[in-house]
Amino acid sequence: MRRPALIALLLLVLAAGVGGTALALGATGDDDAQGKTYEIEFDNAFGVTDGGDFKVAGVRAGTTDGLEVEGQARPVAVVKVKITEPGFGDLRRDAHCEIRPQSFIGEYFVQCQPGTSGERIPDGGRVPVAQTTSTIPLDLVNNIVRRPYVDRLRIIINELGAGLAGRPGDLSAVLRRAHPGLRETNQTLRVLARQTKTIERFVTDADTVVGALARRRKDVSRFVREAGSTAAVAATRRDELAGAFHRLPEFLGELNPYMLRLGELATAQQPVLRDLRGSADQLNTFMTRLPPFADAGGPAFTSLGRASDSGRRAVRATTQELDELGRLARGAPALAKPLRQLLDSIDDRKRAVDVDPRAAATDPPAPDRTHISGQGGFTGMEAVWNYFYWQALSTNALDDTGHVLRLNVLVDPECSSYFNHRTGQEAALARCKQWLGPDQPGINRPDPTAAATPATAPDAQATASPRAPSSLTQAQPVLDYLLGP
Question: What value does the mean pLDDT take over residues 444-461?
Answer without folding.
Answer: 59
